[in-house]
Design brief:
Layout (H helix, E strand, L loop, with lengths): L2 H5 L54 E3 L6 E6 L2 E4 L7 H9 L3
Antiparallel strand pairs: 1-2, 2-3
Bound molecules: zinc ion.
Length: 101
């Protein structure tokens, strides 16, 4: 269990190329960032295991691209789109003001 995954509020996404050593067990890629094109490797918020979020669940469907920092919304089927203002709830805006991300 990775303690980092327990404290982060967004799914950590690791860029797919050029950073990690080839361990032979790289997690699968779940599509690419529509903004910068980096392969995305979302992880389950609870287990830290590589897993795509469930589409259509608001906050639970989001992840941040570690390449360009864009918050993305998972659409399913390996497709993502950047988070839009209309996606945010009052709770999200409150968290933003506090800098909680
Ligand atoms: Zn990106």
């Amino acid at each position: 269990m990775d303690s980092e995954t327990l404290t982060r509020t967004h799914i950590e996404i690791i860029p797919g190329e050029g950073i990690e050593p080839d361990t032979g067990d790289a997690p699968p890629v779940f599509g690419r960032c529509p903004v910068c094109g980096k392969p995305l490797r979302p992880r389950d918020k609870r287990t830290g295991a590589p897993a795509a979020p469930k589409p259509g669940t608001g906050y639970e469907s989001r992840a941040r691209c570690s390449g360009c920092g864009t918050i993305l919304v998972y659409l399913g089927g390996g497709r993502w789109r950047p988070l839009e203002e209309g996606d945010l709830t009052d709770d999200d805006r409150f968290a933003d003001r506090l800098g909680l991300d």
